[in-house]
Structure formats: structure tokens, C-alpha cells
Design brief:
Keywords: Arginine metabolism, Cytoplasm, Hydrolase. Helices cover about 30% and strands about 20% of the residues. The protein is α/β, with parallel strands linked by helices. The protein has two domains: about 15-65 and about 150-405, 5-stranded Propeller (L-arginine/glycine Amidinotransferase, Chain A), CATH 3.75.10.10; about 70-145, Arginine deiminase (Pentein), CATH 1.10.3930.10. Helix 13 (about 365-375) links the parallel strand 17 (about 360) and strand 18. The radius of gyration is 21 Å and the shape is globular.
Length: about 400
């Protein structure tokens, strides 16, 4: 039986969740891409080929690749899961009771694969057969979406993140991404690969309004040895960090959380766009953001459920202490200040480590990739001219389900 456990950022990667959805990207247009958190539209076929090359690299390295839409369709085959998903994604308060009831009745007759496709790729009013289009008021624009597409499901890292022996179903910062969490909640709760597993839920498995407590997986690095590194960012709030930290300590799955403060800027929306771990003692960093002036705190369990907090002199010292290392090596983004800015924007620092010293990333970042190679890091590269338009690289596009400790 597979053990869904992620013990580090750099231990042998054994299983990973990916997602690519043609339908969601076919529905990404110049008029809606910014609302859906993309800077531009993608060439759907080229992006699909790039993603396929990414998956192939992982498989060639012995990683078991699972696909979100396949797991979602298999989950929908279970009546309880299907009912919960349809009730949740097409609730009476989203559509109105009359329309919600008729649309769910229609969807229930479709193959599970088609339902999964609509749940991730979106559903337009004009796709609903006329006998089932029964709103209380006939005032809908048939070209609009009854369910908006979820192109950001591509970035499986954000919606849920496995941290040691447990998972956080993350309360997402942006409203257009919050439906993603429900798809993952159903998979982890009912799919046979997960339902009988013994793991912790840190956040998101209960009906709670998390309000200001938002967190996204791109800000969470499981650096190993009971330590977790979290970015205080545009998408991850202090309240979210506190909620996750308390749950990690309560379950005993972590003993130390190191928090790095980031600018509230789309260019570095998550910690893993400016800092990733390449080997046990080697990190990649964008120096304009991650440097000696970056504010950093360490959280540890206190007495009576309190959190002890200590502001650190610098992030290097905090990481070394958390990992019991005497030193760490930091490889900065390649090029001069202009080249560094360009390559960071194209996810040069957003590397997915397969095992210590072997990483995957976009081939366009030649200056940074050369620096990695010079430092003894093996870079397995693939094209990302289209995928990169969503501002996410190999780490963003992957949710490890099983990874070794260090």
C-alpha cells in the first residue's frame, strides 16, 4: 500500500500529482485571463506538449505520476462522493435552488469523466440542454459560465500540500481558486488510494470559514527533520501561517516552523518562486528578495498551547539551525540584475527536486541553469514558453504525495 508521506523537499520523490486540462485553457481568453490569474492566453496544444514532456521526465526518473482529473473521475464513481461534490460545487446558493436542482439532475446522468471535465474545465450556460435549464428568472447570458474554468488547477502544489504524515487542504487566497480545494477534498476523503490511509488533516477537512487565514502550498517548503519553511506572502497570511503551525504542532508532525517575509507582489507571489531547495544543504534564491535583510522568524511549541516566536538574524542561520547544518550553499539566480529579474519571472528558482542534487525546471532559464550545473546540480530541463505564462514552474505544477526523509 502506498504511504502518502512527504518527509522533505529533496529526498527521493516517489509519487506526485499533476494536472493538465485542455478545456480550461481553451476557455482562457484575453478578456478573462487576468480574472483567472493568468497574464496571457496559452497555445493549448503547445502547453499540453510541454506538460507531457515534464511528466515524461518524472516517469523516466522512476516517479509515479498520478493525474488529478483521473482521480476525480474515479472519485465521482462513488455515489456519496458524487453527491457531495455536486452539492458543493453547484450549491443552491451558487445557482439558486431551481437551477441547481435541474443542472445536478442533468450532470448526474453523464459519465464520470465528463463531470470531472466540467468541474475543472468549466461549464457554460449554453452547454446545458434546454430541458434542464430551469432558472427562477430567465435573465442569464448563455455565453457566461455557470462554473468558471479552473486553469490554476495546473498548479497542484497550491491547493493541497502534504507535510510529513498529513495534508493541508489549503484555504486559498483568491476566490477563483477556492473550488479547487473541494475537488481535492473529495479525492482525499473517498478515493480508494486515500480513504483507508492513516494521515492527518491539518486544515480544510471541516466546514470552517477560514476568513483571513489563507495559505497556499507554493509558500510551504518541507525542508525536513521536522522543520517547515513558510513564506509570508501575497497569498499566505499571518493568520494562515498561525493556523497551519498550530495544527502541525498539535499533531506532532513538525517541531519548528521558519517564516520568511516576502514582498506582497505578483512577481514573487509564493516563496517557491524565489527560494527552493536543491540538495540537503543547497538552496536556490533570487537575491533581490531573499537576502540578508529578509525578515525571518522561528516558531516553536510553547507551554499551554502557546507559540514561541523568535526573530532570527537571517534566513541562512534559521535554516541551518532547523536542519542542524553547519553551513548551507545558496545559488543565486543567474545573470546581472536584469537577467536575474527576467529569469526569476520565468521561474528559474522554481525547481522541483527529484532526489538530492537532481532537479527539474524550464530550459529557457539558461543563465541560472548553467549556475546550477557549475555547482554540481543536475538540471533536467523541458520547454516552458507556454506553461510559464501562468507564472509557475516545475515545483508549482507538482504536488508530491510520497517523498523520502533526509
Amino acid at each position: 500500500m502506498v504511504n502518502h508521506y512527504v518527509g522533505s523537499e529533496v529526498g527521493q520523490l516517489r509519487s506526485v500529482l499533476l494536472h493538465y486540462d485542455n478545456l480550461a485553457f481553451e476557455r482562457l481568453t484575453p478578456s478573462n485571463c487576468h480574472e483567472l490569474l493568468f497574464d496571457d492566453v496559452l497555445s493549448v496544444d503547445k502547453a499540453a506538449e510541454e506538460h507531457k514532456q515534464f511528466a515524461t521526465i518524472l516517469e523516466q526518473q522512476g516517479v509515479n505520476v498520478l493525474y488529478l482529473n483521473k482521480l476525480l473521475a474515479e472519485t465521482l464513481a462513488l455515489p456519496e462522493a458524487r453527491q457531495w461534490l455536486l452539492d458543493t460545487q453547484l450549491s443552491n446558493y451558487r445557482l439558486g435552488t431551481s437551477l441547481a436542482s435541474s443542472v445536478k439532475s442533468w450532470l448526474s446522468e453523464l459519465p464520470n469523466e465528463q463531470i470531472a471535465k466540467y468541474l475543472t474545465g468549466g461549464l457554460a450556460y449554453n452547454e446545458i440542454p434546454e430541458p434542464f435549464f430551469k432558472p427562477l428568472f430567465d435573465s442569464y447570458d448563455w455565453e457566461h459560465f455557470i462554473l468558471k474554468p479552473l486553469p490554476n488547477h495546473l498548479f497542484t502544489r497550491d491547493t493541497s500540500c502534504w507535510i510529513y504524515n498529513g495534508v493541508s487542504l489549503n484555504p486559498m487566497a483568491k476566490s477563483v481558486r477556492r473550488r479547487e480545494s473541494n475537488n481535492l477534498k473529495a479525492i482525499y476523503r473517498w478515493h480508494p488510494l486515500f480513504e483507508k490511509q492513516n494521515f492527518n488533516y491539518y486544515l480544510g477537512n471541516e466546514n470552517v470559514n477560514y476568513d483571513n487565514a489563507t495559505i497556499e502550498g507554493g509558500d510551504v517548503l518541507i525542508i525536513g527533520r521536522g522543520a517547515v519553511l513558510i513564506g509570508l506572502s501575497e497569498r499566505t497570511s499571518p493568520e494562515g501561517i498561525e493556523a497551519l503551525t498550530r495544527s502541525l504542532f498539535k499533531t506532532g508532525q513538525a517541531t519548528k516552523v521558519v517564516v520568511l517575509e516576502l514582498p506582497k507582489d505578483r512577481a514573487c507571489m509564493h516563496l517557491d518562486t524565489v527560494l527552493t531547495q536543491l540538495d540537503i544543504n543547497v538552496f536556490s534564491a533570487y537575491p533581490a528578495v531573499i537576502n540578508d535583510s529578509t525578515r525571518c522568524w522561528t516558531l516553536t511549541p510553547g507551554v499551554n498551547d502557546k507559540l514561541d516566536i523568535k526573530e532570527e538574524a537571517g534566513y541562512r542561520q534559521a535554516i541551518m539551525s532547523a536542519l542542524s547544518l553547519s553551513d548551507i550553499k545558496v545559488i543565486t539566480t543567474g545573470g546581472d540584475i536584469y537577467g536575474q529579474e527576467r529569469e526569476q519571472w520565468n521561474d528559474a528558482n522554481n525547481m522541483l527536486t527529484i532526489r538530492p542534487g537532481v532537479v527539474v525546471g524550464y530550459e529557457c532559464n539558461t543563465l541560472t541553469n548553467d549556475k546550477y550545473a557549475e555547482a554540481g546540480i543536475e538540471v533536467l530541463s523541458f520547454p516552458g514558453d507556454q506553461l510559464g505564462r501562468g507564472r509557475g514552474g516545475a515545483r508549482c505544477m507538482s504536488c508530491p504525495l510520497e517523498r523520502d526523509n533526509i
